[in-house]
Amino acid sequence: ISIGGCNMTIKNLTVAGSGVLGSQIAFQAAYKGMSVTIYDINDEALNKGKERIKKLAKVYQSEIETAKEAYSDKAKSIKYNKNLLPSLDHIFLSKVADSLDLIADLPNQITFSKNLDQAVSDADLVIEAVPETVSIKEDFYKQLAKVAPSKTIFATNSSTLVPSQFADITGRPDKFLAMHFANNIWQNNIVEIMGHKGTDDEVVKEALAFSKDIGMVPLHIHKEQPGYILNSILVPFLESALALYYNKVSDSETIDKTWKLGTGAPMGPLEILDIIGIDTAYNIMKNYSDTNSDPNSLHAHLAKMLKEEFIDKGRTGKAAGHGFYDYD
Ligand code: NAD
Q1: How far is Cα 184 from Cα 318, in angstroms, rounded to an integer?
Q2: Residue of minimum CA distance from atom 29 in ligand 1
Q3: Residue 100 and residue 84: Cα distance in Å, rounded?
Q4: CB burial string 51-67: b at 16+ within 10 A, e below
Q5: Cα dist. 204→159, 207, 257, 270 in Å?
Q6: Structure confidence at residue 292 (pLDDT)
Q7: Which residues pair with 154 in a beta bridge?
Q8: Looking at ligand 1, which atom is closest to the CA of residue 159?
């Protein structure tokens, strides 16, 4: 069953990396009727990916159940996620039943593979969501270039690196661009689509159409910009909060409370960091500090703090149950 499916050129999607974002992209695309394969490096990583997919099925089920409650008791005006299901119309309940059946079966419909050659053999699009480390991404594109069919579009989900950096290594710069998803994509359903100078306009169009087909709001960025739009705003914001914490200006609760009460925002910067994951924050700070010759730069200190106070102690964020805060 495909919920809200439409004419698509891209039908076969391979997601490389089954971590936080890769698993979400794979699940959402499968939910919208794409044929999805997940590639990761070994059995251990794939097993973790399978667990993430099963957890996502539970998240989607609970989103749909909330929509059902909203439909059944309109007087309560329950807020529900409108991205996963169309409006509360007369055939809503049958759509709910279809969606729940579909979601229950999705973990079985997604193919998992540690063999890159097989994983991309019929891919229309490969979305790369491997760690935010230049050398890992470069090695991945070198391997991918050798085995992917010529029709395949490659897209990076990198948060901070720009496509021109990898364009040559992909061996098909005209079919390479960035498609940047936001964490918790079933709610925060945006994709920033950004080519480099050599990306074919038709490829950009395909990426925009595919994003719509999988229920996202595509946002076209016309000029290469490190950090796209979202992270051009978000990274300096989070970095400022980390610097306040590192300099012991205040504690995490007070930093977050100040932001929330002062602006009306639902979450503070350190709560947001826990959701993004401390590993990703560390990688970003480390990349910045590695490109700076000053070993005493603020980025170097922030990277060291994130490693020693958080990552080494297993406090890698909300998904791990511990980060700046403790979670049930
Ligand atoms: P993650 O650490 O949760 O997952 C990375 C996955 O890649 C792991 O499953 C790992 O086993 C796998 N991997 C490692 N080397 C690989 C290789 N050579 N080939 C294939 N898979 C490999 O990372 P994440 O948070 O999902 O981030 C992945 C990418 O998505 C990064 O580029 C990041 O910048 C970007 N991103 C992350 C977020 C976020 O909020 N976490 C948001 C938007 C974009």
Answers
A1: 13
A2: 129
A3: 11
A4: ebbeebbebbeebbeeb
A5: 18, 5, 41, 34
A6: 81
A7: 126, 176
A8: 34
Task: Report the pocket of ligand 1 as residue ranges, CB < 6 Å.
Answer: 16-22, 39-41, 45, 49, 129-132, 136, 140, 157-159, 180-181, 183, 276-277, 279-280
Where do runs of H (alpha helix) occur along 193-229?
201-213
Which residue in 26, 27, 56, 45 sits closest to 114, CA to CA? 45
The reported pTM is: 0.83
User: Radius of gyration over alpha carbons of the chain, in Å?
Assistant: 20
**Strands of 12-16's sheet in order across:** 111-113, 35-39, 12-16, 125-128, 153-156, 176-181, 190-195, 217-221
Distance 80 CA to ligand 1 centre (A): 29
Which residue owns the Cα nearest ligand 1 atom 25?
20
> In whole angstroms, what is the distance from residue 250 CA to residue 194 CA?
38
Q: How close is the Cα of 17 to the center of ligand 1, in Å?
A: 6
Angle between helices 298-305 and 230-246 (to 10 degrees): 70
Do 45 and 120 touch, CB atoms closer than 8 A? no
- The distance from CA 4 to its chain's CA centroid, rounded to whole angstroms, is 22
Q: What is the pLDDT of residue 230?
A: 92
Return the HEC string of 29-64.
HHHCCCEEEEECCCHHHHHHHHHHHHHHHHHHHHHH
Q: Mean pLDDT for each consecutive 10-residue tract of the chain (328 residues)?
A: 54 97 98 97 98 97 87 74 70 81 95 98 98 96 98 95 97 98 93 98 97 96 95 93 98 98 97 94 90 88 97 96 96
132 by DSSP, 3-state: which?
A: coil
- Between the CA of 241 and the centroid of ligand 1 the distance, in Å, is 24
Ligand 1 centroid, distance to 50 Cα (angstroms)? 15
Structure tokens at 276: 């993004």
**pLDDT for the residue numbered 90:** 65
